[in-house]
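Dear colleague,

As promised, here are the two records you asked about, laid out in our usual form so they can be pasted straight into your sheet.

NAME FIELD: protein one
SEQUENCE, THEN STRUCTURE:
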Amino acid sequence: MAHHKPNLPQKTCARCARPFAWRKKWARDWDNVRHCSAACREGRRPAAEAARKTSAGPLDPIQPGR
């Protein structure tokens, strides 16, 4: 029998706009949790708005030496 957790609260990540569910390690601080992962919290993932803008517009040319 599979273990399912259908009744966990969910939030939307402030950076990537993906939904994420409650985790036990966030139990004491759930009201203050805003990001789905450390990558989003530290800015390693692009923001949802920036990702949408770049996907709709032209791509920047790759510059040598970068």
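NAME FIELD: protein two
SEQUENCE, THEN STRUCTURE:
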Amino acid sequence: MKRILLIILATLALSLAHVPHARAQAVVAHIDLSTQSMEVWVEGWRRYTWPVSTARKGYRTPVGTFHPYRMHRRYFSRKYDNAPMPYAVFFHKGYAIHGTNDLRRLGRPASHGCIRLHPENAKTLFSLVSEFGRSNTEIVITR
């Protein structure tokens, strides 16, 4: 009986080691450029998977690991004709994750390099980063 209990506990412990890349941060937003998708992990658990739009041909979305450095609920791009960027989370130079009204292009490259989300999803991510803090949030972008 004791041995069975130990096996169950060991199995449970192994199952709790479920997300190796999310262990250090409370919130991890993983953007996969090849699938045009974002997974959001909260305290080690995958909570959301969303379609995104990243850089179209002729532009680039930076690849790497970043932390947010600035956030705005309402923001308008000075560089691109005051384009609305709701729930903007800036993570590298002028690049941000933000909402878009161009919903039909989510899931394929369409931006100048930012990561576009459905506005409700951008609001959810913005709220998570606000709740857990920028220093406890990691943005991981892979090809």
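A couple of things worth noting about protein two: The chain has two helices and nine strands. The first strand starts at residue 27 and ends at 32.

Best,
R.
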